[in-house]
Amino acid sequence: MRKTLAILLFLSLGGFIQSRAQSLKNSEWKFYVQGLNDTLTYHFDADTSWAASTTGDKIVRSLWKESNDTVRLNDVDGMYPCHDGEGVYRYVIEGDVMTWVMLSDPCPDRAGALNNTKFYRKK
Prior knowledge:
By secondary structure, the chain is an alpha+beta fold. The chain is built from two helices and eight strands, in the order H-E-E-E-E-E-E-E-H-E. Strand 1 (27-33) and strand 2 (38-44) form a beta hairpin.
């Protein structure tokens, strides 16, 4: 009985540890934006993120905060910033693929580019 309980506890803790979100800090991800007809690279630094086109143009730069599996974006500048307010997204990483789901975003262009988007880890 004790052995069974110990195994169950170990398995449940292992599942809890694995389900914690990976940090996006110091990572780069590629994703396609239909409206721009381009694959962008999204860079996540310590507190600033930015997306660049294949030609290197800075599409948008944002201040960002991460908490568990949630990202909060406040655009600062770039070619297509949204100054209407904060975008909040939940993300899931499975292997080298990340998916974002919008929780709230007052900016329809940003939401259209990020909601349900698959990002691929840049290698």
